[in-house]
Amino acid sequence: MINETYDVIVVGAGHAGNEAAAAAANLGSKTLLITMNMETIGKMSCNPAMGGIAKGQIVREIDALGGYSGIIADKSAIQFKMLNLSKGPAMWSPRTQNDRMLFAEERRLCTRNTPNLDFFKIW
Predict the structure, then answer these.
(1) S-S: 31 plus which of 19, 24, 53, 61, CB 3.0-4.6 Å?
(2) Residue 42 per-residue DSSP state
(3) Whether the Cβ atoms of residue 94 and residue 57 lie closer than 8 Å to each other
């Protein structure tokens, strides 16, 4: 893999790195995703939620661009909730609470099955 040529190299396999690498690969670029630990790809924080007013906007934009976060959140959800129903419709926002382990497994599976995307583990 060291001797190969890549169009795009993404350093860091967190949520943003995964989405950036997947977007580049899905657009046909030969892409390399570099990570320190293959087992922490897609790991969620201590509050495993996707959605809400601000983060929900980002998830919708990622979804519109062909990203995977919203799809994976739906697959790994343990609770769906509509927030701010006591306010006007402009403030309503869907949110999921997710199974952290299942989310990470789905993220790794989805990322590994993306054509044109290779991985490199450092250290």
Answers:
(1) 24
(2) T
(3) no
